[in-house]
Amino acid sequence: MMKKSEEAIIYATIMHQGKVRKLEERPFIFHPLEVAQILSTMTDDEEIITAGILHDIVEDTDGTLAEIEKRFGKRVADLVATDSEKEYHGEKKLSTWKKRKEETLKVLKNSTDIGVKMLWLADKLANIRSLAGMYSELGDEIWQKFNQSDPEMQRWYYKSIAQLIELSLNKTGAFKELIKHINFIWPETFDTDKTKFRKYKEVSVEGCELLGRGAKGEVYRYDDELVIKVFNENNTYHDVEQEIAQTRKAFILGIPTAISFGIVSVGEKYGAMFEMVDADTLSRCIARSPKNVDQYAAIMADVATVIHGIEASESDGFPYVYERIKDYIVGGIGMENTALSKKCMKLIDKLPASNTLVHGDFHTGNVFLQNGEALLIDMDRVSMGHPIIELSDLYYFYVVLGEEDPAVVEKFMGFSYAVAKRFFKSFLKSYLKTEDEERLKEVTEKASLIGYSRLIKKFRKKGKVADKDKAKINFCVEKISELVNRLDTLAF
User: Fold this and answer.
1) Whole-number Å distance between alpha carbons of 92 and 96
2) Structural domain boundaries of the chain?
3) If you classify domain 4-195 with CATH, what class do you get?
4) Set 59, 225, 278, 437: catalytic member
5) d(CA 77, CA 73)
6) Which of 60, 69, 294, 404 is catalytic?
7) Is 60 exceeded by the pLDDT of residue 197?
8) Number of helices (H) and strands (E), helices first, in the chain?
9) Residue of 257, 291, 256, 292 lying closest to 272 (CA atoms)
């Protein structure tokens, strides 16, 4: 009986008959055969190799995914689909180039199938082999042969792919060859160490105590001395490096933060190790002793005071936080009520220019207590801006998220919603150094406007809004409308 890959060679040869490759002007079929050969150096999985032979059928012939699935099976068709760009009929290829690349990169980033990453590596390696050969003859003239003639855009594309497949495939010869060609065409894109054999220390968190979870990953107690942050699958090595670099910059400026001393691999994910002897998150401290919530709120207020007392400069490389907040408004309220969105934007624009640091993800799950000393982790959102933004994040985490369903906050923080609301008010008293209820109400209202905006954005980010969420959105819009008509400023 004929193998799938053998049948695929016959099918692809027929479908690509008469076609030639753009750069080398040689029969097109040589390319998918080369991709299959590269794949065979990484795997003996017949379906992955078959997908390599068929990966250009949908883009470059009249063949369809339905036909591929019928002939070769669903997994082969699914693999081919990940490496096939969406067509935008009636639009020039250059005008849709970046959009098409971003769409397929998103598919690669979110895939957990190693076959997808292997297929992409083999296809792009075969492409860049030809590109490097022609580049050595023509230099930068070569870019005129492409729809996208900007070499920096081409560099961005190949670099992005390499970053997304690195953890899974960095030990393969194919990956190292890809990096070598990228660095030849775009010197110093990657550290030359990536072209050599590199084995990350492999650790397991099986049986380890979960200390907390956030948007980017989970934090575990690895042993008595070490804590490990395990990043989600869609975080690349570059993302982890960036966060560690951001952490070091923040530490130098005076933020009390834990510094990672190494990147490890945890299955198909990256991890960052921290030396934190007997440390525990404030969330877990509160969960164990809710009667002491005021004490822990005071610790958080002290940390916030330190952060907000630091002035950075643009040369420090931290972004301004207002872009994130404007995204909440435009992508949230703006989708519900344009006029209201504009009023909110005016309040944001009126905030005084400030190079004050804000953490950007400030909650008790990101603060560890070690021998009474508070240490922050998750520094990737550190930015510059007015402290009201930090307070709005806190109001969002401890009040807004639980108004409809207290279990949301209880699951996230590990303690009851009643304790969460008490924590926020106690934090604000300590931070503002006041018991004045009118003053507390004033600042809370300003924080809540941004907090409710963020919740609308959260619902809108999912795409189609579920019926159960529409009532909550309407509630948020009413609250924001009432606030925006009373408030002259968000500063305090």
Assistant:
1) 7
2) 4-195, 209-275, 280-484
3) mainly alpha
4) 59
5) 6
6) 60
7) no
8) 21, 10
9) 257
Taking a C-beta distance cutoff of 8 angstroms, is the pair 189, 148 a contact?
A: no
CA distances from 255 to 44, 214, 304 (A): 50, 20, 9
Query: What integer pLDDT is reported at residue 190 of this predicted model?
Result: 87
- Yes or no: is domain 209-275 CATH 3.30.200.20? yes
What is the pTM (predicted TM-score) of this model? 0.68
| Greatest alpha-carbon span in the chain | 83
CB 403 within 8 A of CB 262: no
C-alpha triplet 110, 180, 200: angle, nearest 5°: 55
Give the bridge partners for 357, in sequence order: 384
The model's confidence at residue 199, banded by pLDDT at 50, 70 and 90, is low
Question: Measured between alpha carbons, how far is 411 from 288 in angstroms, rounded to an integer?
Answer: 15
| Alpha carbon separation from 427 to 285, 386, 423, 444, 472 (Å, rounded) | 15, 18, 6, 11, 26
Burial 30-51 (b: 16+ CB within 10 A, else e): ebbbbbbebbeebbebbbbbbb
Say whether 241 is catalytic.
no
Residue 178 is encoded by which pair of tokens?
Answer: 């890809």
Least confident of 37-41, 110-114, 444-448: 110-114
Q: How far apart are CA 231 and CA 112, in angstroms?
A: 14
Q: Among this protein's residues, is 275 annotated catalytic?
A: no
Band (pLDDT 50/70/90 cuts) for residue 198 is low
Strand partners, 412: none
Instruction: Give the DSSP letter string of 75-144.
Output: HHHHHHHHT-PPP-TTS-HHHHHHHHHHHHHHHHHH---HHHHHHHHHHHHHHHHHHHHHHHHHGGGGGG
- Tell me the CATH architecture of domain 280-484: Alpha-Beta Complex (3.90)
